[in-house]
Amino acid sequence: MENETPQEPPQIEDVSDVKKDPEFKKFALTRILVGIVAAVLLLWGGIVVIGFFDRDQRPIQMETGKTDHFAETTTTAEAPTTAKTPAAETHATVEKVHAPASKTTASPETAHGAPAASQPPVGEHGAPAAPSGPPGVAFTEALIGPLNYELRERFWGWRPNDILDFTDNVNNIQLGVLEVTRRATVQLNERISRTGTTAALDPHLNQAMNWLMVKAEEYWFPSAETKYKDAMDELALYRDRLQRGEAAFFTRADNLIPLLAAFEDLLGSSDENLVKQFEEDGEPVSHFMADDYFYYAQGVAMAMHQIMEAVAVDFHTTLENRNGVDVIHHAIHSLDVARNIRPWYITDADLDGILANHRANIAAPISHARFYVNVLIKTLST
After folding, report:
1. Of 131, 138, 143, 370, which Cα lies nearest the Cα of 261?
2. Quick one: angle between helices 287-314 and 358-381, nearest 10?
3. Other CB atoms closer than 10 Å to residue 135's CB: what's the count?
4. Residue 318 has what pLDDT?
5. DSSP state of 151
6. Do 379 and 321 touch, CB atoms closer than 8 A?
7. pLDDT at residue 119 in the model
């Protein structure tokens, strides 16, 4: 036999040569892209899950007679027959603000709103048709309800001043609710509760107005939520005095018009942010700002809807005498549409595109509400 020539062991490729191989580069790039996509999907899924549990669980209320979810923390007790000391009065009021709705009146329609037994007769578009109880009680409860819900009932509480900010959608809703509450409280303090500019300011309303002026982002010294809760308690004290006939609430047209004018200005600002395509610096509106503008406008609609329904209660005679009942019902309906637009994810697509433009979707009812508020101002002015 011939001697076989021994074979040399196979050469191991240099690692650097492998990395230069086009197939390896393609494989590595594919794995990186898949990893990035998977990470984005996981992050998005986590946000959706958090949003699902964090969503306000109030029912969609577009039918006549449905109540709003914000009033559940402002149930009203009958006026006491004996006088209370200031300390006892404050303690009783705080208990009222925290008191849940009566279990005997709970139903799918009233579980997130005021007890059915305390609701006045209902008119067109869900607005109460006539006042029930002392004038101003319905208005003050509607003023307390939205912000009190955000402070004491919503999961995670007040968020704009949180150090770790993960929920900017709710943050902007709360800022919208706060702005409506501020403006309405100012008008209640300076106009609706006074006979004129020479009348004394109500001490509880004046203090509530001052507490609401604390910046929403203040974390400490003082914290925003602490002062806002104090403001809600002051408003509750004013409400209790109304029930006992010890506070004033005037339902003249000239008292209501400044409130409507303040609402018209706020709706106009929200409408502009919803329809504009460029920011003041000339840059296009980003997706993140479009998202913020949408939820701020929705917070405005949520709080304003409740207050306007209360206006229809307490100013019913004035509105009826000035032929403004139908007009305010149209405004209430438009606000109801705006507060019930609830997409899972905000898209800001082209107006003629396949995807929705949610800013434009909510801009329409916001604009309609502003129009009817303006009409109501003119109706009351004549």
Report:
1. 370
2. 30
3. 18
4. 97
5. I
6. no
7. 38
Q: Which amino acid is at 345?
A: Y
Q: Residue type for 206, please?
A: N
| Residue 128: strand pairing partners | 122
**Structure tokens of 217?**
């982002």
The Cα 267–Cα 305 span in angstroms is: 12
Domain range summary for the chain, segments of one domain joined by +: 70-75+84-101+123-381
On whether the CB atoms of residues 114 and 296 are closer than 8 A, the answer is: no
Q: What is the mean pLDDT of each run of 10 residues along the chain (382 residues)?
A: 55 52 71 82 66 44 37 34 38 38 32 35 41 85 98 94 86 98 98 93 98 94 95 98 96 97 98 96 95 97 98 97 97 98 92 92 98 98 92
Rg (CA), the chain: 28
Tokens 């609402």 found at: 263
Contact present, 147 and 228 (Cβ < 8 Å) = yes
d(CA 249, CA 253) in angstroms, rounded, equals: 12
The continuous run of DSSP H or E covering 344 comes out as none
What one-character DSSP code corresponds to residue 284? B
pLDDT score, position 5? 57
Cα angle: 113, vertex 165, 32; to 5 degrees? 125
Side-chain-facing half-sphere of 218: CA atoms under 13 Å: 15
Distance CA 289, CA 279 (A): 10
Q: Are 238 and 208 in contact (CB under 8 A)?
A: yes
